[in-house]
Structure formats: C-alpha cells, structure tokens
C-alpha cells in the first residue's frame, strides 16, 4: 500500500514523504531508517500490480530478476551483482537505473528503498516482494519466486494470444475477400446488368442495387465507414467503455465463466507468491484486489473483512464465490497443514489447466464454424452475381 508521511529530519525541517509499504509500521520503519522522525502517517490506498499500471517497457524486469538471481547464487554480493549488470547493459536508460541503484546502496539504503524511487520501472508488487525478503534474508528466493510468477503469467498470456492468431487471421482474410467482392466485383456486375432488361432474382437485385449505390456514393460510404472505425477504436481506448463491455461479457454464461476462471488463476497465483514471501494474508489480499474485475473486487473486500474477523479463508472465499468446489477443498487442506502459499499455487495451476481446456474446446468448435460461415457468405455472393447468367444460359438451351 502507498503511505504519505509527514516527517522531520534535522537540516531539512518538516517534509512530506511517500512510501510503498506493507502496513503503517513498515512505512514508519522505512522513514525512521532514513533518519526521519514521523509526525503523521496517512494511507493513500492500494498499490497497483503489473498489467494495471504501465511500467517502463524499455527496462527488462524479468531478465533483470533472473540475472540478479544467478549472480547472487554465484556468490556475488548485492552491490557487486548490480555493478556487473550495469557494466554489461547497453541500453543507456537502463544503465542509469543500475548506476542509481548502486549509488543508493553505497549510501546505506536498502534495495527495496532504492527500487521504490523508480516506480515507472519497478512495480509495487516487485518492491513489496523484495522488502519482505529483506526481513528474512531470502532475497535470492524472493527473486526466484517473482521470476517464476511473471514467467507463468507470460506463458498463459502468450498461450491465449497464440490460440487466437488463427481465428483472427481467418476472419481478416475472409473479411478482405468479402469486402473485395462487395466493393469491386459487385459494382462491375451491376454495370453489366444495368439497363439490359433482364429480370433479376430478388436477392440478385438487392446485390446489384448495393453495387449501384457504391458506384454513385462510394466516397460518402467510405468516409462513413472510416469514421465509424475511428470512433470505435477511440471508444475502446476509453476505460469506462472497456469496463462496460467487460461487464456485459461477464453476464454471458460461457464467456463470463471463462473470464471468472482466468481471474481466479491470476488472483491465487499472485496471492501464493506474496504469502510465500512472508506477507500477511490480509495485506496480501489488499494488494491483489487490483487484479480482479470490479464485479469481484467488492466480494474480495467482504472476504477480507471476514478473514480479519477470524473467519477461515476457505469459508470466506466460498461465501463470496471466489473459489470453486475443488479449490475450496484445497484451501481447507492448506489451512489444516498451514501451507497456504503452496496450496494456492496448486489452485492456480488447476485453474490454468482448466483455462487451457476451455481454450482448446472453444477453438475446436469455433474454427470450423467460422470457416463455414465465411465460405457460405462468399459462396452466396458469387452465386447471386452469376445467377442471371445461369438463367440466360438455360433460356438459350
């Protein structure tokens, strides 16, 4: 969470500071470690998670975590590892970040405090993970967990994207062919049939009328279609419209259920990483709420309140529909064994596998249906264009 602290330090007077911390005591200890005397503290709300707040795309966060972990495992000290990464870095902006981190460490700051000065590069979740590890001395282990967590998220995201490439490509090619027939071929045929006195079938006549309309008002239609596309693209960039569309999709039974599974997979995976890092469950729940859609955020808030009041995690999650029958039983096992972090990781894996099955089933059903629809549309257009020629050939015979 983000905290605003009014503090005093000799030589500076009263100043206003901002800290990303697990709780008020953590924020106070950070300020005290830097020589400040805390006068007041205010909670500014939850921190943002990866994917919900733009980070510096030019900084390789995942490779940074992997390389830093490898150097620490090889026996390098933290400062030596960062200096080695700075020496090999070719990107000037990233090198400046490494140099600044090394300078902060030489000044006596902790790594989490140094990382916090670059919010556009290091997301709050990464900073919180490092800060939690500093209390236990397991920085390498924390980096390994973050790397595994981010790699798994990227794997699931890439799998969904790769699965959607073929249907999108098929729709694009089919749409181009249909557009070519309607905007170029049909108008040519409408000129051939125009004024020849041939009685065209009703559907063919509609198609030829469309060709004539394009011939006379093609520029206006093109401007109208272009304006509609631009307005649609602009609308999709608006957060309010995207949230409205997601809410509508959420209420479609099959799509909404799949979205629910995907949300829970990310939710439990992130929660697992935080719990394994030693972050308390109530704080971790506050941090991961930003991963959920607004439909589920209210439920998570109620579940968090119930857990703070002493209710078991499995029961609170079940009452707020933040679990399924299988994952609920797994949560109960985790409560009995005291290993909730590991159990939540297994729940995330279970949800990932279920999501993969849903994607495979959808593609097996959707691709043939899509090919059939596109083929029928193209076939109908071609038949309607040539139907008068078929009738003419039949009358000659």
Word description of this protein:
By secondary structure, the protein is mostly helical. It has 3 domains: 2-45; 61-137, Receptor-associated Protein; 153-397, Type II secretion system (T2SS), domain F (Receptor-associated Protein, Up-down Bundle). It contains 15 helices and 3 strands. It has helices spanning 24-33, 61-73, 78-88, 92-106, 111-116, 124-136, 139-193, 202-236, 239-250, 253-276, 281-288, 294-308, 313-319, 325-337, 340-396, and strands at residues 2-9, 13-20, 37-45. Strands 2-1-3 form a 3-stranded antiparallel sheet. A hairpin with a 3-residue loop joins strand 1 (2-9) and strand 2 (13-20). Helix 6 runs antiparallel to helix 7 (139-193), helix 7 (139-193) packs antiparallel against helix 10 and helix 7 (139-193) packs parallel to helix 15 (340-396). The N and C termini lie far apart (84 Å).
């Amino acid at each position: 969470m983000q905290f605003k602290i009014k503090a005093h330090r000799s030589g500076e007077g009263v100043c206003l500071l901002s800290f990303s911390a697990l709780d008020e005591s953590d924020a106070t200890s950070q300020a005290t470690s830097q020589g400040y005397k805390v006068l007041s503290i205010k909670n500014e709300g939850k921190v943002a998670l990866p994917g919900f707040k733009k980070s510096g795309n030019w900084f390789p966060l995942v490779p940074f975590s992997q390389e830093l972990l490898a150097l620490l495992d090889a026996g390098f000290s933290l400062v030596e590892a960062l200096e080695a990464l700075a020496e090999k870095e070719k990107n000037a902006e990233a090198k400046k970040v490494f140099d600044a981190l090394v300078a902060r460490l030489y000044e006596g700051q902790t790594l989490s405090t140094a990382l916090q000065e670059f919010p556009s590069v290091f997301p709050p979740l990464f900073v919180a993970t490092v800060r939690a590890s500093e209390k236990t001395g397991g920085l390498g282990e924390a980096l390994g967990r973050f790397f595994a967590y981010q790699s798994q998220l990227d794997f699931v995201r890439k799998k969904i994207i790769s699965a959607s490439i073929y249907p999108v490509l098929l729709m694009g090619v089919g749409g181009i062919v249909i557009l070519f027939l309607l905007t170029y071929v049909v108008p040519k045929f409408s000129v051939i049939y125009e004024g020849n006195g041939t009685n065209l079938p009703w559907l063919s006549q509609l198609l030829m009328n469309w060709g004539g309309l394009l011939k006379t008002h093609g520029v206006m239609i093109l401007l109208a279609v272009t304006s509609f596309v631009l307005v649609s693209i602009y609308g999709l960039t608006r957060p309010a419209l995207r949230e409205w569309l997601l809410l509508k999709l959420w209420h479609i039974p099959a799509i909404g259920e799949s979205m629910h599974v995907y949300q829970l997979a990310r939710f439990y995976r992130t929660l697992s990483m935080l719990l394994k890092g030693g972050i308390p469950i109530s704080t971790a729940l506050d941090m991961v709420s930003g991963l959920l859609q607004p439909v589920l955020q209210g439920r998570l808030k109620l579940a968090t309140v119930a857990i703070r009041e002493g209710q078991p995690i499995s029961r609170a999650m079940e009452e707020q529909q933040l679990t399924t029958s299988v994952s609920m039983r797994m949560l109960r096992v985790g409560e009995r064994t005291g290993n909730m972090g590991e159990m939540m990781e297994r729940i995330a894996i279970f949800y990932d596998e279920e999501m993969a099955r849903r994607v495979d089933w959808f593609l097996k059903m959707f691709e043939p249906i899509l090919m059939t629809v596109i083929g029928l549309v193209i076939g109908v257009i071609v038949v309607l264009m040539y139907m008068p020629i078929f009738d003419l050939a039949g009358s000659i015979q």
